[in-house]
């Protein structure tokens, strides 16, 4: 399968620059923007490939087409200047999962909620919340118990590189993360942000996480959710105190 690779805004503008002063020509990049879509034949071909902890469910043409779109074409919503990196969930789409429903309830009451841009980091790549119901993000499965040591190493490096590219391409005023501190995804996020000298705020402290670690899904446990809310409250205070000074 070969994927169409559209022009980025910069590439488009470079090509049409010689026409920009021509009154007879209207230049409109927005008409060329697209969201990756795949026909049923491609979906069927990849239906088994996007299941399981394996190389082809980490790097494939569908995931790369989406990542290319996220990096070169996509622009984050202007009003969402607070990045919140989140983990994936076994249940798809994410909004149906207990993890994301619990997080939604915890953060939706904050004044800064509409400024928060939820972005999931998982094996298909970097997934802004507004795309999590799109294929293949609503259909893949990555059972962690199937991971071999080689797959873990590859997962870390692929994720690290993707996070780094995303952070280079998309700027925010504030950066946060709510994940299990001992996960490979968290390590990739923190290492990539450190490499770029970006201060990222962990919304779950390690001491609290240790209390919940052996209790099934720790991210939905009350102490961890309280850590999320308390840290978000501090950030909100910092934002509004800063705007009033």
UniProtKB/TrEMBL annotation:
Record bears the keyword tRNA processing: yes
Residues in coiled coil: none
Keywords: tRNA processing
UniProt cross-references to InterPro entries, sorted A to Z: DUF5591, Uracil-DNA_glycosylase-like_sf
Residues in DUF5591 domain copies: 66-197
Listed Pfam families: DUF5591 (PF17884)
The name this protein goes by in its record: NEQ526
Natural source organism: Nanoarchaeum equitans (strain Kin4-M)
Taxonomic lineage of the native organism: Archaea, Nanobdellota, Candidatus Nanoarchaeia, Nanoarchaeales, Nanoarchaeaceae
